[in-house]
Every structure is written in C-alpha cells, then in structure tokens.
Amino acid sequence: MKLAVLNPGGRDPQQSFPDGAGAPDEKLHPPVNYHAFAACTGGAFHRRDQTIPAEDKEVLLLIGGDLKAARQAMVELRRAGKTVAVALQEAGAFQFATQFTRAAKFRLFLEICARADGAIATTADLVPIFTAAGIRHTEFIPTPYPIDDERWNFAIPFEERRGIFIGTREFGVPSRNHLAALLTVHQLAASMYEPVTVFNLDGWRGRQMIERLGYDAQLLRVVQGALTYPRYLRILAKHKLVWQLDASGVPGQVAGDALLARVPCIGGNGTTERLAFPELCGHGRSAEQLFDLAARLLEHPHDCEAVIERARDHARPLVSYGPVALQLTEFFRRIAR
Q1: Which of 5, 153, 283, 332 has the most CB atoms lying inside 10 A of its own CB?
Q2: How far apart are CA 40 and CA 18, in angstroms?
Q3: Burial code of 262-293, b = ≥16 C-beta within 10 A, e = fewer?
Q4: What is the DSSP letter of 144?
C-alpha cells in the first residue's frame, strides 16, 4: 500500500516519498507528522484530490482549517471509489476544543465523519471523539519517525554535548507552558552552569519575555525565528537533554525530534513522549519530579546513552517506520468497503 495523505487547501506542496524518509533536505518538508504516514508507506502528500493517481486507493484525509474543502474532497474521493480515513490535522485535545467552537464548523466535521470509512487518531484522546462522531472504525496510530534510518541519525558524541534545549517554542499557547519551562530550568542551569538554548518565534514580544527572565548572558542562547528541520536537529543534537512542560496532549514531535538527535527528552505529555520516554515524560509527574530527573541526568551524563538506548527500544515497535506502515496497511484493509 502506498498511502495518499490529502490536506485540501493546505499550504504544503505535493510531495512524493518513493525512498521512504529519503535523505535530509533543507528545501523539502521533513518526513514527520502526517507527511510521515505517506513516507513510511512510500506514498505521497497531496493538497488536491485530483493529483492522487487512480491506482492509489487508500487516502488519509486531513480535517484542518478549511472544512468546506475537506467535505468537497470527501465527496470526490468517495465518487472515485477510494477508501478514505480521516484524521484531525491539529490533534491535541486543546486544539480540538479550539477548532470547533462554532456550531457551523462542528456540523461540517460531523458531516465529513459520516462519509468516512474510518478514522486515525494520532493521540489516544481522539479515539472516543471520532467514535462519538459516528465513525465505526477508529484506531490509534502514532505518527512515525525514521529512527532506524541512519540518514536521520543526527547524534554527536556525548562528550561534545553541553546544555539544555527547551523543546517548546510558543509563548502564546498556554498549554505549551513555554514560559514556565524557561523559568523552572533557570535555577538548574545556573547551579550546574549548563547553558540553555531557546527558540523565539514571537518576535519582539518574545524577546521582551526572555529578557525579563534574568538569565546570565553566558547561560542563554536565543535562536531567533524558525530554521529548516535539518538545521534545527543539528542544534538540538549538541545538548545533553531536552526540557519541556508541554501539557497539550499533542502527537509529540518534541520527543520525536529528540529521538532523531539521540537526546533524552524530559517532560511533556504528548503521544511520543509517553511511548518513547515513559521514564522521563510529564504524564503523571509533577514539575518538581521532572526537575529531579533532569538534575540527575546532568550530574551523571554517562547515563544519557543508556536512556537513549531504552527510548529507542521503546520506540521501535511503536513509532518507527516499519511497524507503523504495517499498522496502516492492516487498518485500511480492514475498513475497505
């Protein structure tokens, strides 16, 4: 099966993945998130249903900002005899609540679900939502990462690593707890003299927030603006650990990025955090407990390599390309009419 992932009206261009994840490329969308579902099956990512080849019968339709475009795409796909599963483009529990605050949008969502053969929930929280929306076949399938593809191994020797990487980026999303992450790690960074790296995607507002935190200039590195995915991973890989307090319940790209960079990820309650880093994730742990875990790893850096190996062992059967591709194939075979 070569899965066609369709985001009607989306901004990302059409992209094929004949070589799975392919090699890291500064110009192409990385094979993560929903692009990863296409990549792990050797399929393609589309923005228009007309570009999906006739021989590609399995389609994952993303429900995003343009619900009318998604509904029309569903009609056309059903008419073309495709087997269509749906997924929410923004899959966090908070994101679902934010997206469907208007009755008209929620009505469109229910109409799309009524026409679908099945649904893929990239977070466990979405399974009962899709079921309640009338979809008979819903399966929890996490977004995969090419963790066993050496082209996507961004690791550097542990003796060359230094500092703490803040995994979140957005001050304006309360559930990300981006400011709280910077505040809580300040004392740890100062006491162990480990520099902190943070991304600022909020322009001058973000700069003002960061300046008021009181960090010593030598202990804080601010990366202004977004980078390409390979450049971002190369920066992440230079650190001893990733720190976050994200409570959004999202699919968990921060932990996926950490897996590719071979860096322990502490905190966060996303799907990948729970599956790959169950000993370090924020699910069921207080900020104080996470702080203690981070301090322990910084005090015993030789343990980081063992932590990463355990994380990869956890992740391989659950979020690596091969097992997820098999899970997708079996799911679409089951829902085919």
Answers
A1: 5
A2: 9
A3: bbbbbbbbbbbbbbbbeebbbeebebeebbeb
A4: P
Q: Which pair of tokens denotes residue 222?
A: 């601010």
Do 205 and 171 meet the contact criterion of CB atoms below 8 Å apart?
yes
Sign of CA dihedral 285, 291, 297, 299: negative
pLDDT tens digits, 205-231: 999 999 999 899 899 999 999 999 999
CA distance 119 to 131: 9
Length of the chain in residues, anyone? 337
Q: Report the alpha-carbon distance of residue 83 to residue 115 in Å, rounded.
A: 11
Rounded Cα distance, 208 and 223, in Å? 14
Angle at 289 between CA 242 and CA 241, to 5 degrees: 15
Q: For residue 62, count CB atoms less than 10 angstroms from its CB and return exposed for 0-12, middle for 13-18, buried for 19 or more.
A: buried
Cα→Cα distances 241→54, 76, 161, 191, 205, Å: 46, 47, 9, 16, 27
pLDDT for residue 99: 73
Parallel, antiparallel, or unpaired: how do β-strands 44-46 and 58-63 relate?
Answer: unpaired
Planar angle of CA 235, 239, 241, nearest 5 degrees: 125
Q: CB of 93 within 8 A of CB of 128?
A: no
For the stretch 283-304, pLDDT in tens is 999 999 999 999 999 998 889 9
Contact 152, 24 (CB under 8 A): yes
Residue 91, pLDDT > 90, answer no
